[in-house]
Amino acid sequence: MLNAALVVYHLLALCQPLWAQDSATAITPQDCSLDCVRQGRPGCEYCRITRADVERAVGFNSIEPFGSCVPWPCYDLLGEEDPEICRHYVQAPNDVTVEFVPEPNPKSDTIVVSWKPSYYGIAFLRGFQVFIQALGGSSFACQLFLFNRNLSLPPSHAQRVYKSDPFPGLPLGSQYAVTVMALPVPEEWERFYHSKIFSTRSCAEKIGLEKCKKDWYPKHIEVRQEGTSINVTFNLAPPELDISSYFSLCYANGKKKYTDITPNSSKNETHHSYLLNDLQEDTNYTCEIAANEVDAVRKTFNVQVTRTQKGATPLSITPSLALMLPVCLAAVAIIVILLAALTGLTPKLQMKKLFMKPSGEIRHRESGTPEEVVSLPGNRLTPPRLLICYSSYDGPAHVKAVMQLGAFIQQHMATQVCLDLWDSLSVAGEGSMAWHCRQIRESDFILVICSRGLNHRPEPPEPEGDGEDEEADGGLDFGHNAFSSDAAVQLIGEEVGRAKTRSQDLSKYMAAVFEYSEETDIPTELRLVSHYRLTSDLALLFSHLHGVALHRPGGYLKINDISEEGFTKLPAGAALQWAIYEAGVAMRAKRHHSVEGRE
């Protein structure tokens, strides 16, 4: 018996490296035809399925509504030989990761997605579909991978790592959501996919700051006061970036001073000095300097202008004064140290700054003043979940403004945003109304973007042609979700009224209007909840989402990059401001045309 046990032990020891190698080796897609998959021939265990393969299998016109994506029509691809193959439940994949691979284009990134299958239902697993969608936009791409129909994976293969093909050409500094879906997908099954949000690298992260024109900023700044003027010296951009001019902006006490800077590279190619004149004495200025380029990164520094005494005569130092001066200076230094120690024991809060470091830090501050960091409430392990509802009746410009708002909140306000435009897969699978109902139930907060179109109750258009085809295509047309969104807002209004009659907490619900809308656009049922005007009330919205007070005795809370004057310095904030401006122009034009039509 002992000998048999030793033999088994040695066999297991020999096999263990093979198991480890099998689980550690990533499985990449193969080039094989759809016919090989359908017939179950060897050599097509994990195959990439192209759009051309699907077109030949289901017909060209059948997949037009899917745009550039590769659809997964299970019954048409695999169901003819065995209809049961499309009816089993398979759990969502695990350990979804995003890996950057070499990309020669300095302006874009290429990624590869990897994951592990779940052992729940792995015997019925037929393949995977991978989606990637840009946050704040509607562009997306997807890939389809299938096993041959005779392949049945054992639970031990749940440790295998599967990879996608590369997704090339992703712009730098962008956010995306990647979704890996396990196939097949029966109806009314919610746990078949896994989503992950990631950001592409910045230009500086990929090829270095000195090679990136958009991301470059002066690193070294020296400030020196000369009489009533301030001399500022900074390092110039490398010549290969072709940056010929810069600008400086200083502000204090509500006043701003703008300075154009044009260095003479023939005198000095590495540094340049310029003067700041007409500054107020005894004033602390916050200044920014940047290259004179679109969306250039700004370097922030502080300038303290001290008072200069006019007509003062130089002090003559007598021998006795020369002996007393070092003693006096030492006594003053000791007194200053003692005062600093005493004041450090009983600090008074004068200002708190909440630092939310976004995925790409674009503002570089240098300040000698001490700052106190305020943490978010620690009773929540995950970011608050915010559902944004809106009406698409006001046109694509309004929808774009809503998407940019969601992208800004997601990136810079430590909040997980749920928006139907970003979750088109679930909306198409569940139906728009069912998706909204589930999100209303699961979200921590609900924000309704109110506009004139929100109070519009149009009749649904009559379907043309085959009703089933229209319904299937409508799931991919975001404009057709307007009726479900309006119904979701009505449902939210009913929930608010019911909670009010029961004296329940209404903090879950919020209403907001953009600058081009009016307070009267807020429906009557939503005037019971907190409402905000965006973008001027971004700080109040943050306070509501995270339960932090903006004011307290002896101090107030200042939130970096969410203030009314600070959010536009972020790329997402500038995009939000421009989208709101464009939507305002479109809304005014629409109102003008409607007035002319009535006349």
Description:
The structure is a single chain. The chain is α/β, with parallel strands linked by helices and 599 residues long. The chain has three domains: 187 residues, Immunoglobulins (Immunoglobulin-like, Sandwich), CATH 2.60.40.10; 100 residues, Immunoglobulin-like (Sandwich); 193 residues, Rossmann fold, CATH 3.40.50.11530. It is 29% helix and 25% strand. The chain has 13 helices and 27 strands. The strands form six sheets. Strands 1, 3, 4, 7 and 8 form a five-stranded mixed β-sheet that branches. Strands 2-6-5-9-10 form a five-stranded antiparallel β-sheet. About 15% of the residues have low confidence.
What is the straight-line distance between the termini?
102 Å
Q: What is the CATH topology of the largest domain?
A: Rossmann fold
- What is the overall shape? globular
Beta-strand content: 25-35%
Structural class by SSE content: alpha/beta
What's the rounded overall pLDDT mean?
75
Task: List the total number of helices.
Answer: 13
Taking all Cα atoms into account, the compactness measure Rg is 31 Å
Number of extended strands: 27
Parts with pLDDT < 50 across at least 5 consecutive residues: 4-23, 312-323, 344-375, 459-483
CATH hierarchy: architecture of the largest domain? 3-Layer(aba) Sandwich
What is the helical fraction, as a range of percent?
25-40%
Structural domain tally? 3
User: Main beta sheet: strand number and arrangement?
Assistant: 5 strands, mixed
CATH top-level class of the largest domain: Alpha Beta
Based on the structure, what is the oligomeric state of the protein chains?
single chain
